[in-house]
Amino acid sequence: MLAMPQKKIKTNHQGGYVLPLVIITGMILVAGAVLLSERSFSGLMRLTRQKQGDEAMEIAEAGASILINELNTQFPYLLTVNCQVDNNSSSEQRQDPRCSGWEDFRFGQYGGPNKACPGRSSNPSQIMGLLYQSVDNKNGSYRLRNYEFLGDQSQGGTAIIQVQGQRFRGTKESSDIAASAIIEQEITVVPKCCNQAPFVSCSAGWGYGLATNRVQLQLGDVVDENPMTSLSNANVHCITCDPPPDDQCNPWTSAGQIISSTCSEVGSGIISGARSNGPLDLPKAPTWNIAEWGDPDPISINTVNNPVFRHQRDNESKHPVKGCFTESVNGKKTTHCRIASINLSGNNEIDLRPDDENGIPGDIRFYIEGQQINLAGRTLANTGEFGQFSIFGGEATRWPYNLYQCGSKQLNIAGGSEIRAFIHMPCFNINLSGGNETDQIKIVGSVISEQWNSTGDYARLIVPGNAGTTVCSTYGICSSGGSGSSDKEFAALGTKRWSPIQMD
């Protein structure tokens, strides 16, 4: 038999290469994906670190502003004292800064102030607890690195402050520092009088927007007419009140009454300036001068008898308003008016014209003899600039008004009233009530009173920037307050130079 030829089996050798190729390709793809992922992760980490670094820088800036503000408002006497922090090593970044200059400061050292001005902290060591503080919902903290003053106690000088910003991975209490930045600022330090603006002579101004024996501010405010770029003029001194807290943001209370919390407009009144308490001799209010101005009957002002108050003209033989007297000093006319009572409401207005017939500025002064003044509605018109109208409420000079003692008299001001005046009424309780967003109660000026009661959220004492100097030059009240007119402190003004010096 013939053998059948065997059929050759075709072997597919190409199939043997496919699997390795697939594996190699897969490995390449995986490696590429890993590499891409690493690069993306690295990029994300770089962005995260950059963001954290930027946040650390912002924290440092915020910290510098906070510390400068604290020095200005509570510890101005430390502005001319070095704070050389001695624990700044890398292992000490989470520790409270230590510097003997501030912690061990004593008044009167190195020619500095002998005591703190009214409204300032009298315990300089309290600032040490403010040098390392959490910000940004505890995700970061600022920390003082150094404070160096270059100058003297007479003329001031410049100061260089270094503040570190720390950005944490979590919170300050439970995490490490993710990023850190240090900034350096150079500021100008100038001498000034207690509770007065810089560059004003110490003997040239009254230091308070409101000075009184007792305060019930509640929702009312004491604020600056034009917010100051440095220090406020809206300072409040309450003789019988409890000492205000050193932290300006904490409520000031007396017998359970919240007087002010400056950092929130909810639930309490706002005081823009310094708060102080303790003994203070309130200056006595001027009274009607019978010897110089005669003895006319005091005027009763109401809805029926509502005269126009102006100066007596040179060609007039007698004053147009009975109970008033006009005198001229150095070409300026001042009209004094003896007032028994004022009871006005609604659209009834007192028309005041403090300029004379030639348009030369003068002033009009009311001397209150009676027990009570009631103003409701838009009751005063044409009061002029601050210093052209004043209301004095001292001891009465005419019977039977002098039967009423100081402290039992009332000045009541209700919704919609607005007065631009110096109100010097140490015998009167001044009561502000009512008012709304449309008809607010506004006293634009400076006030001295027996008691100040402000019960409405739309009742405000607004203090002009020139109030202190005007009260001195026009009315002769020039003391800076209970500390005396010669007491000085310092103020930090605008930043001269700012620069980042480290970021990691």
Q: What does this entry look like structurally?
A:
The chain has 504 residues and is an alpha/beta fold. The chain has two domains: 167 residues, no CATH class; 276 residues, no CATH class. It contains four helices and 25 strands. The strands form four sheets. The chain has a six-stranded parallel barrel with strand order 15-17-20-22-21-18. The longest helix has 59 residues. The chain is elongated. The termini are far apart.
Any key phrases for this structure?
about 500 residues, alpha/beta, 2 domains, six-stranded parallel beta barrel, five-stranded antiparallel sheet, 25 strands, about 35% strand
Order of helices and strands: HHEEEEEEEEEEEHEEEEEEEEEEEEEHE
Mean pLDDT reading: 82
Low-pLDDT sequence parts? 480-486
Q: How large is the radius of gyration?
A: 35 Å
Helix content: 10-25%
DSSP summary: helix tally = 4
| N/C terminus separation | 96 Å
Give the neighbour order of strands across the main sheet.
15-17-20-22-21-18
**Total domain modules:** 2
Topology:
Layout: H1 15-73, H2 100-103, E1 132-135, E2 140-152, E3 156-168, E4 177-193, E5 210-216, E6 221-224, E7 236-238, E8 252-254, E9 257-260, E10 270-271, E11 275-277, H3 290-293, E12 299-301, E13 308-309, E14 324-329, E15 332-344, E16 350-352, E17 363-368, E18 372-376, E19 380-381, E20 389-392, E21 409-414, E22 418-432, E23 441-454, E24 459-463, H4 467-475, E25 488-503
